[in-house]
Design goal:
By secondary structure, the protein is mainly alpha-helical. The chain is 76% helix and 0% strand.
Length: 82
């Protein structure tokens, strides 16, 4: 149950972080490659291409990452020595 909840939490956090990173990457792309802003083309490029790709990748990485962290077993305790 812990793995499932942390995986879902990682999915949500990864989606948010990936969207932010995608918007940043899209804004950098439009400034570096001088994308035309005619009728909002650069905005469409950022918010309809880079942001969804970033959200999808961030969600996958976040879910698998926190799921992996939650699934690790703690190290075994040493036996008591008399």
């Amino acid at each position: 149950m812990k793995v499932l909840l942390l995986g879902f939490f990682g999915l949500i956090l990864g989606m948010i972080a990936g969207g932010v990173i995608g918007v940043g990457a899209g804004l950098a792309w439009t400034s570096v490659f001088h994308t035309s802003s005619f009728e909002g083309y650069s905005g469409y490029l950022v918010f309809l291409t880079f942001m969804p790709i970033g959200m999808a990748l961030g969600a996958l990485i976040g879910a698998f990452g926190l799921g992996y962290v939650a699934s690790r077993q703690p190290p075994p305790l040493p036996p008591d020595m008399p």
